[in-house]
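Practice problem: predict the structure.
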Amino acid sequence: PGQPGRPCRGCCCCCCSSWRCPPAAPTAPAPTPCMSPSTSLRVHRSCPSTAGTGMPSSSTSTCQRTPCCYAGSCRHPGEKAPSAPAWRSLCMHFRHGAPPVINPLGTRFPANATVRPSYNISITLSSAVQNTTFVNVTTPAAGDWFIAAHLPEAAGRIEVKGFSTPCPYMFQADMFVLRLTDMPVLEPGVPMPHTVVSPAKPLHVKVFVPKHAAGMRFQLSSCVTSEQRACTVRVLLGSITLPQSFQRSLTCTGSINCSLALDSPPWEKWLQIMVESLGTTNASVSVEMLASFTVCRPGSTSSFLNFISLNQSQAGARPGAAGSLAPAAGQAPHNVSSQRSSCLQSQPVVREDLDVVSVRYRLLNGPSVPVSSLAPTLLLLSLNTGMDSGGSLVLNLLLNKTSVSLANATVAACVSAASPVLSLNATRNCSTAFSQGYPLSVSTSSAEAMLIVLYPQTDDWFLSLQLLCPKGQGECSSAEAKVTVLAYLTPCFNDCGPYGQCSLLRRHGYLYAGCSCKAGWGGWSCTDDTKAQTVGTQNLATLLLTLSNLMFLPAIAVAVHRFYLVEASVYTYTMFFSTFYHACDQPGVAVLCIMDYDTLQYCDFLGSVVAIWVTILCMARLKKILKYVLFILGTLLIAMSLQLDRRGVWNMMGPCLFALFIMVTAWVHHGAKRRHCYPSSWKRWVFYLLPGITLAFIAISVYAFMETNENYYYTHSIWHVLVACSVAFLLPPRDKHKKPWAWPQKLTCRYQICQNDREELYAVT
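Answer:
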């Protein structure tokens, strides 16, 4: 929304969300929370009528306590879930500088991870097809703004594609920017008179904060109205960043000089200053403003020379360039003396890009950093490429206990963005002028500390370290500590652990990382074991899903006994690939993949549908040549449809319905030819067909309507058992002219009497 030198006056985000679902009964719109006194929010809903046209209606939001989004539904802490259906609730989160860190499921974050809440609003979708929400932000911070939207938590049911009505949401965000042009520039150290025209038209100026600025002092004086009366003005310094704004406010009354001091203002950035009149009349106000800076002189010149030498050697400089390290070493005593006169000691850090959203920071002077009590040691961690905020910044501090001469000394550290904290002994809360940093500390009793910053904002980050003593700095003025610093940017912390998979997601050209957890584990880095499956549960799930396929052995035996060898081959194929597909599909540690996962899945789906296809055609009692032609043709068509859409409902429903149509037609033909119901035996119906059909319908009901993520391992195992048993019941008896397997007759080694079936067929009358 803003650029250096041309900040924004206001920013309006228009978030449009629409849904397509079966119409529901209209309900009263819920009040929408207000953002802040300087933010307005409007909700527009278009309610279509039965004739296809509608009149837009608008409602202004009412101010209330901002709710938090938990488990997908926006509600106040401690309150019950809203009575509206879950699919009518939509949560949106806003954050400046980096994607918002959200936790809609209420899971735990990894240890040592810092989470700053993002601003969130809720949109309740009623019977309207489209909702439009406007969010106004006055004087927004310059840079990237991120909006994240999520739906409520799903019910966890495993639905067959095509059996349920989809409810897609479409989310569109538009930004409208109103810029201020020709904004006056306040030069440091130069008093500048300005005029506030009226209370309705505040004055906007800007000042550039130089590098190494330790503090800033803003002074306002000579406040006089055009009517020569005492004036009252309010000064706002800084920009708005949601949800917590660090704007500094100053109210000045009369002609008395008033000032405001800022510690650690943001380096190399434009600072916006707004002056508004609080008077009731439309009289203009004249003021005089002055901005002055306190600049900190960094030390450690030898480190800078080492950095120059290293860059020259890496760039393939002259052969004598390596000798430039000698003068730097000779200047070491001078730098030790200059350490006492400088306000910070800067350590050079090299950024090494390893991969996408993967950066390692290497210290040129070694991993150990000297830390004293005279001045803080400063490390610069550059995260300003625009593609670094989608990962996790990890810092690990390790104190060398042998380097600390005082047992009760503590090394205080602070990680902050935009500007460093230069007074760790006085500012223990690790805050700068317009932001709140992340404090750390190591001591002889606790020598290691870790910090994980999730989705760090795009900016220059600083790590400040200083040695502190409980009895004052004079106690440890000559002491020095060695701290090993390990800093890196990773897509996913700890690579999501053993029960997660790190994924890089791209949305509108922006990359960010996320963990996909399994085996019941959850959380940002798959470290939440609240609903995690034990190893015994994982082994039980694998055994149930794989060994349940052995129920195809009775069906195979029945098919072989009745001379249905092709059908038996199909059942064997299905049993084999279903067993090893489910052995490879397990989310936990009990996993066995004999080949590629995608190949196993395709073969399992193909075998399941073809098994149903050949079973129903076998029940139709067609002629052999016609039956085998349908076997081959149906298998080819099923293979093609699975390649197009593997999870489509018609991949199974289509072959089933067509095979049932062929079977019913064949049965009607046989019954009309014999002038009797087919199959004619009541025993066949009672003891075989009806139990097989019942088992098949129960299996389809379990597969289509009862499976969820929690009960999948035993409901799907029941599906395996029921389908295999139904096949054993539904297979028709063998042909009457075929005798059962007689292994002694098949293995004779003497003369054998052959029987002429053709002559007997013609002899029968």
